[in-house]
Amino acid sequence: MAALKKDNAKLEQAFSEIIQAFIALEEQLEKKYSDDDEAYSSAMVETIESVLDSILEEGDITTTNIAQMLAVFTEALEEIDPNAFEDLVNDDDDDDDYDLDDEELEEYNEDDDDEDDDEDDR
After folding, report:
1. Are 26 and 45 in contact (CB under 8 A)?
2. How far apart are CA 15 and CA 10, in angstroms?
3. How many Cβ atoms from other residues are within 10 Å of residue 83's Cβ?
């Protein structure tokens, strides 16, 4: 039991340090690439990829170890906050998506029905 508590404390400290370092990196890159979202994203990915490559070169950790940790981390975060990932939206994927409230959706459907009726009258 004592070993488990010790491991939990290590994980808590390590995750805290990783998150703080990640936030600091985000802030630096946001300043550097404030006008270029694509350059910011590329720099972020390249930095993380470089860090992962360094860790993997040591040989004690595999990509599977990292993937397992991220999967468990993701599941645990979703348990704590089911909406945690909703704000992470890729702008490129949303170009054709529209957010309509119920009233707007109803108006849209009514307009569409009116067009169908006009076609039937012809």
Report:
1. no
2. 8
3. 7
Buried-state track 52-67, b at ≥16 Cβ within 10 A, e below 16 = eeeeeeeeeeeeeeee
Q: What is the pLDDT of residues 70-91, one digit of tens each?
A: 999 999 999 999 998 887 755 4
5: its two tokens? 């508590």
Residue 52, classed as helix, strand or coil, is: helix
**Residues with Cβ < 8 Å from 35, sequence gap 6 or more?**
none
Sign of CA dihedral 22, 26, 29, 33: positive
Structure tokens at 94: 């949303």
Question: 33 near 39, Cβ under 8 Å?
Answer: yes
Instruction: Answer for the pair 56, 62: CB distance below 8 angstroms, yes or no.
Output: yes
Q: For the chain, what's the residue count? A: 122
Cα 6 from Cα 26, distance rounded (Å): 30
Record the tokens describing residue 11, joined without a space.
């994980």
Q: Low-confidence residues of the chain, pLDDT below 50?
A: 91-92, 94-96
End-to-end CA distance of the chain: 79
